[in-house]
Amino acid sequence: MKPDDMPGQSPAGTHVVPALALRAGRAAEPTHETVVDEEPVALEINGLSYAVMLCTPLALEDFALGFLLTEGLIASAADLLDCEAEAGAEGTVLRLRVTARCEVRLKTRRRSMAGRTGCGLCGVDSLDALNHEIEPVTATQAFTLQAISSAMTALVARQPLQHLTGGVHAAAWCRADGVPEIVREDVGRHNALDKLAGALALSGMDAAQGFIVVTSRASYEMVHKAARTGTGLLAAVSAPTQRAIAIAGRAGLTLAGFVRDERANVYSHPQRLIP
Questions:
Q1: Which of 16, 181, 189, 194 could make an SS bond with 169 (beta carbons 3.0 to 4.6 A apart)?
Q2: How many Å apart are CA 250 and CA 237, to the nearest integer?
Q3: Are 236 and 203 in contact (CB under 8 A)?
Q4: What are the tens digits of pLDDT across the range 49-82?
């Protein structure tokens, strides 16, 4: 397909690209596909380069705040004083300004490499950095299996980028009755959860009164980030890892996996799930 034959402008966070459709028993056909954007986003905090993440360049203020919160670099949204995005040819630079007391944490836990969409530990510069403390989850709200299963089903209709591209993850904070209240999408599952954490912190809603569902597996860092939001339950459509289960147990987080078709496996703190 020639550039002049390409469709009109694609939705934000996507591009339309030429492709060749191969189907059994049919001749190859030129076509076009909508694909999700994956761009470098550099986090610069108080003038110091902290990390470069690959993510979908949407809801970047949510991402910046959520990343700082789930990394434990700030304690609340009030600690982020300013967020300025500067788009360039190679990606976007997020220039963040945090309080002086938070700058101390930054200097002790500074990343040194680029973070990929598939691995939340890229850039952590020592094994000790894996074990930074999480405040114990104190949420007491309980949820039914029907509510978390309903939330996972309802989330399907709240993923416009996924419907267009088939290439993104979603994370949602849901009310106790299973209705998704805040949804964020990104090409990276960790980024989607960071964006959700930022949006949740800005919403003023009590994270402990609801739960989080994600359209991915439950890895170590997904559990770590979910626990930092203050919610009591993380429900994943796919499997957890051994380390994720161990961290959830230590953090006091209820972890459910394989949530689909009104079934789930619960791996830690089942007291928050009503039979």
A1: 189
A2: 22
A3: no
A4: 888 999 999 999 999 999 999 989 999 999 999 9
Q: For residue range 76-123, list pLDDT tens digits in order.
A: 999 999 999 999 888 999 999 999 989 887 877 665 444 544 454 444
**Which of the following is catalytic: 102, 119, 122, 174?**
119
Region label for 230, one of left (φ > 0), alpha (ψ between -120 and 50) or beta (otherwise): left
Q: What angle do CA 167, 170, 175 make, to 5 degrees?
A: 160
DSSP state of 128: G
Chain centre to alpha carbon of residue 109? 20
The radius of gyration computed from the CA coordinates of the chain, to the nearest angstrom, equals: 19
pLDDT for position 126: 44
Residue ranges covered by each domain of the chain? 3-36, 39-131, 143-274
Is residue 174 within 8 Å of 212, Cβ to Cβ?
yes
Q: What is the CATH number of domain 39-131?
A: 3.10.20.10
β-pairing, 80-87 vs 169-174, is: unpaired
Domain 143-274: assigned CATH number: 3.40.140.10
For tokens 């040194």, the residue is: 112
213 and 254 Cβ atoms separated by less than 8 Å: no
Active site residue 122: no
Q: Where residue 132 falls among pLDDT bands split at 50, 70, 90? A: low
With H, G, I as helix, E, B as strand and everything else as coil, classify residue 212: strand
